[in-house]
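Case study.
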Amino acid sequence: MKKDAKKAMVNIFILMMQWTIFFSIIGLEYLSHKRMGVMRYLLFKKYTYETLWLQPYFINVYVSVLFGGLVICLFWYIHRKDKGSARRHLLLAFIINLAGIFFILAPKGRNLNAYPFFLIGIFINLILQYTRLWFNRMGYK
Amino acid sequence: MHMIKKKALLFILLLSSLVLFAACTSSTQEAVKGKKDQPEIQDISTQDLQSKIGQKDWVIVDTRLNDAFNGWALDGVARGGRIKGAVDFSANWLKVEIENREEKLQQILETKGITPEKNIVLYDANGKDAVEVADYLISKGMKHIYKYDVKEWAASKELPMESYENYHLLVPAVWVNDLIQTQNNGKPYRIFEVSWGEESQDYKKGHIPGAVHINTDEVEEPPLWNRKSPENLEKFALLNGITYDTTVVLYGSDSMAAFRVAAILKYMGVEDVRVLNGGFATWVNAGYDVETQANDKTSVDSFGATIPANPDYIIDLPQAKEILADANGSKLVDIRSWDEYTGKITGYDYIKAKGRPAGAVWGYAGSDPNHLEDFRNIDNTMRNGSEIINMWQEWGITPDQRLAFYCGTGWRAAEVLIYADVMGLKNISLYDGGWYEWSSDPANPVEIGEPKQK
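After joint prediction, the assembly is written out as follows.
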């Protein structure tokens, strides 16, 4: 019982963090259309990052990492017959990987003012999701 | 017994009436005495006024709208402009709703030399402004106050009046209203509300009838927020129905954006660019109609001239370096706050570097990147040109020099450029890249801290 309660609390905490990150970035993008200072700051960051970790080589690395994660999650989901929350978290990890790939490859994605922050958000959410998976002891009872 | 009571009552009544009468008489006398103690506002003749000009113990004060002071012939005067040597203290400033208004007005009085020991001549053209200002000055302890109808002065051509060479660049609300009513006598004109953003809340709340919104992103672009290329500026002009001979009126809730676009339009070659002096508040305070329905842009096929027709109006990095190299004949003038100029802060979230181009001189600005108090009156109209020139002379900036104004990304500097243009300064320009461009290249020399000398 105690273990279940602890598990539930951690899951809720991680879920809240994921949603907070997601909505914060959405909010930042929204504000960039309402406040000139926000827009210019985001564009400044975008231009700075484009010379650093948003170069085409790194983009290919990110897509590869996401694709690898996608394949592993899909394999595990099909291969494992476990039921319950762990399998659910695995599916969610799969979806986040897929969404990340679509976002990076979509031409209109780069037009977003908060584009670098969306990328950062996707990877942070993915790490949090993997943490949830591990915590829920994927494959263990 | 009954009789005694009656008599006592009558006596009390009589005594009360006497006391009341005495009290009333006393307060009336005090009121009359108080009024007698208040300084009298005397009239002054044209001849007397003429003899007082230039005398140190006299100050001549223009109480009219800033536009009249600048040069516009308003309220039926025969000639526009101000009496030569007059300072400005507009009655309009007494109605502005701002924080610390009294403190600011007091500072203004001191700056303009309107002090209790002086003889103060207040003039107007409508018979009201001078009285309003007089009442205010009396409440501040001024005693020697005269009033004068400037229509008399303006009617005599031999009496000296002055106005800014290009006062017509800044227009009063009445001029814009006349433009709309007469449809500019058939000549093309456009009125634009200028602010950042595809949708403007200010525009939606209410705008000058017929006005169309311009988003400043239509004329400038990242990463440095410089003006767009001539080809893209032409597209902007065509989309907004602007040709080289269109009369273009620009305004905003805050005028800085309007001045930015005005500078770019003049650079492009639009011959008749006007900015509403004091912004949208001027239109509202004048009581003119406001509409909320959005107006569509109407395009044209051709601009009618090669862009840019005035390439020297806005300059870039190489010309800015030339100016710095010519220390005596030219000045690169920093229109940012003192803290930005000295490198205490950058002033912007997206500009990391602090400091200034080595050799740039401070030209005043305001408290932060969004304000320009040193160049505006409290009703956001243009500050007295003489005061601007005096501020600059402290820093070795003189009207005969080649002056290039810059700030972070060109907004504050554009407003000051237009004011310099209004005053008739000749060799002036806007350094578009500003501190953002200069600081982007580590090879450009930079200074930090207070300058060693002015």
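Observations recorded in class. The CA atoms of residues 24 and 90 of chain A lie 24 Å apart. The radius of gyration of chain A is 17 Å. We will return to this complex in the next lecture.
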